[in-house]
Design a protein that fits this description.
The protein has two domains: 3-43 and 294-421, Lyase, Ornithine Decarboxylase, Chain A, domain 1; 46-292, TIM Barrel. The protein is built from twelve helices and 21 strands. The protein has helices spanning 29-36, 45-58, 76-84, 94-102, 119-127, 138-151, 189-197, 219-237, 263-276, 290-293, 326-330, 418-421, and strands spanning 15-18, 21-24, 27-28, 40-44, 64-69, 88-91, 110-112, 132-135, 155-162, 184-185, 202-208, 244-246, 283-286, 297-307, 314-317, 336-338, 348-353, 362-369, 376-379, 400-405, 408-413. β5 (64-69), α3 (76-84) and β6 (88-91) form a beta-alpha-beta unit. α2 (45-58) runs parallel beside α9 (263-276). It is globular. The mean pLDDT is 95. The chain binds ligand LLP. Ligand LLP is lined by residues 69, 71-72, 90, 113, 173, 175, 210, 213-214, 248-251, 287-291, 326, 330, 385.
């Protein structure tokens, strides 16, 4: 197979072939794999900065804040890089709160989403003086009110409303439909705001929605915006001022030739609609995750075995569903490309699978690849929802992570050892 025939890998120009092999910025990927072993996540700092810059530029001149959704990738150095690029944080747990603070995100730029915040998590977030709680139910309003009053403070809140629009994405990552566990139903939101306004421990500052993830069109966002603005007008008519509008995250990326709108196109369309409806001066927030980090990372894996057979050919690699859970969980597609494409081996159709003892442990199906044991493969679009969803299944330690900037590379997470895995376990002491 020639280089020209190599399957494309998203993330150009930060991940690109040069002199017959894959580079990340100015470092050959194979060199990093030699140094740090595989499976190895490799990120490009320039790609992270470019993605953050695209969002910031789209919002330039507006009263706005981009809050990076940490769940996409909460590795400290990644969060630090985005915080330094001006991003705040969208968090969903006490753990993510601690990570955001540790990474230097200013507390005022943190919004706390999620349907199941505990009292302890609320307390920690109030003590840190975060910017806003995105509250998802009336029950949560009451608990937050009580916790804030115990601490003698007022909690800044926004209600997450469910606009009941179809984001036209995978059902597991669609969150804006009525029968979904997220948010307060559109037709109950006004009453919920009136209730919130009566609670002395709360200070209402905004409204928010998030309709799903990997969205590749502007229309679902515009539908949601219209529905949310109807509510804003009704709620403000009730005498409750809403300072900001948080339109969530969800912007998709190119995994396999998808053409999602750029942040510029998406934000431009939304701001134009806001202006047209007379809401141009309202503060706006976004909570992107995937579109900031997804195509800023790859996962490098080594081919262990080639298992051709009459009906199926399997390439067994050293990365697995515990490192890259998206194919098993969502039937998701990630591009897979050779790090050093070969010309001496015929291209064949392979299922690329991991060593985990599950039939669901596959990374790619029916891929045209020329590969042999010992070769390195790059799994594309691995910056989002890979390491952050990784597990220890089959007692596999989590992979190492490296961040590249120009010709320099830094290990940002050391490979886990088996001793790390059982550190919290105790030997049997009962007889
Ligand atoms: N805000 C809220 C309230 C969210 O629930 C999410 C994602 C985001 C922001 C960020 O969405 P993004 O911009 O990353 O699409 N594990 C799945 C994705 C789950 C998304 C959950 N919520 C996957 O691997 O595709």
């Amino acid at each position: 197979m020639s280089l020209a025939d190599s399957p494309p890998l998203p993330g150009a120009p930060f991940f690109a072939y040069r002199d017959g092999e894959l580079w990340v910025e100015d470092v050959p990927v194979a060199q990093l794999a030699r140094e740090h072993g595989t499976p190895l996540f490799v990120y490009s700092l320039a790609a992270l900065r470019a993605a953050a810059g695209a969002w910031q530029q789209a919002l330039a001149g507006r009263d706005a804040q981009v809050c990076y959704a940490l769940k996409a990738n909460s590795t400290l150095a990644i969060v630090q890089a985005l915080a330094r690029a001006g991003c705040g944080a969208d968090i969903v747990s006490g753990g993510e709160l601690a990570r955001a603070l540790r990474a230097g995100v200013p507390p005022q730029r943190i919004v706390f989403s999620g349907v199941g915040k505990t009292r302890a998590e609320m307390r920690a977030a109030l003590e840190a003086s975060i910017g806003c709680f995105n509250v998802e139910s009336v029950g949560e309003l009451d608990v937050l009110d009580a916790v804030a009053r115990e601490l003698g403070v007022q909690a800044p809140v926004s209600l997450r409303v469910n606009p009941d629009v179809d984001a036209r994405t995978h059902p597991y990552i669609s969150t804006g439909l009525r029968d979904n566990k997220f948010g307060i139903p559109h037709d109950e939101a006004r009453a919920a705001y009136r209730h919130a306004a009566r609670l002395p421990g709360l200070r209402i500052i905004g409204i928010d929605c998030h309709i799903g993830s990997q969205i590749t069109a502007v229309e679902p966002y515009l539908d949601a915006l219209e529905r949310v603005l109807d509510l804003v007008e009704a709620i403000e008519a009730d005498g409750i001022a809403l300072h900001h509008l948080d339109l969530g995250g969800g912007l998709g990326i190119d995994y396999r030739g998808e053409t999602p709108p750029s942040p510029q196109a998406l934000v431009g369309a939304l701001l134009a609609r806001l202006d047209a409806r007379g809401h141009g001066r309202r503060r706006v927030l976004f909570e992107p995750g995937r579109s900031l980090v997804g195509n800023a990372g790859i996962c490098v894996t080594e081919v262990l075995y080639a298992k051709p057979s009459a009906t199926k050919n399997f390439l067994v690699v050293d990365a697995a569903m515990n490192d890259l859970p998206r194919p098993a969980m969502y039937d998701a597609y990630h591009a897979i490309a050779p790090v050093q494409p070969r010309t001496d081996t015929p291209t064949q159709t392979w299922d690329v699978v991991g060593p985990v003892c599950e039939s669901g442990d596959w990374l790619g199906r029916d891929r045209e690849l020329a590969a042999q044991p010992g070769d390195l493969l790059a799994v594309g679009s691995a910056g989002a929802y890979c390491m952050s969803m990784a597990s220890h299944y089959n007692t596999r330690g989590k992979a190492a992570e490296v961040l590249v900037s120009g010709a320099r590379a830094q290990l940002i997470r050391a490979r886990e050892t088996v001793a790390d895995l059982w550190q919290q376990e105790r030997a049997l002491a009962l007889d």
